[in-house]
Amino acid sequence: MKTADLVDAYDDAVRFCDPPFVKLGRKKSFSGPIATVKCFEDNALLKAELEKPGNSRVMIVDGGGSTRCALLGDKIALILRDNGWAGIVINGSVRDSAEIDQMDVAVFCLGVSPKKSSKEGAGQAGRTVRFGGVEFRPNAFAYADPDGLLVSDAHLAG
């Protein structure tokens, strides 16, 4: 279901995340239960979480809004795709954007950077994160399409 239709039907039950996301990948819309990672300029924890079965969940990554280095590149995007994640939203940057844009994935991010991140494993997974005026809680639901990103506490019938 389109995010515009969800707003029309469930306006009081959805929250709109407002950053101007760059949208990459051949999948133009995605939805599912939320999983979270909070990491800053270090993607080792994110990679480890994406190596787990996605089960059609949406990975929400709070990268602190950093555009200095990328938290996702083409190799980790393949892990996202191969492990059954519905999509990923990154409050930060990605690299290998041309390759990612040709993949059967859905990636929302703030921007691109050719610089790779550190690999020390700093961060937290499975915690509530906040950005774009929205609180993302694990197991809440995310709905994304070319019009934007919505979050609800419960699954919305479409």
TrEMBL record:
Q: Which Pfam families match?
A: RraA-like
Q: What is the enzyme's class at the highest EC level?
A: lyase
> Which residues does the record give as Mg(2+) binding sites?
D96
At the top level of its lineage, which domain of life is listed? Bacteria
In the Enzyme Commission scheme, what number(s) does this protein have? 4.1.1.112, 4.1.3.17
Reactions catalysed: oxaloacetate + H(+) = pyruvate + CO2; 4-hydroxy-4-methyl-2-oxoglutarate = 2 pyruvate
Q: What cofactors does this protein use?
A: Mg(2+); a divalent metal cation
Alphabetically ordered keywords of this record? Lyase, Magnesium, Metal-binding
Q: Name one GO molecular function term.
A: oxaloacetate decarboxylase activity
By sequence similarity, the record places it as follows: Belongs to the class II aldolase/RraA-like family.
Q: What is this protein called?
A: 4-hydroxy-4-methyl-2-oxoglutarate aldolase
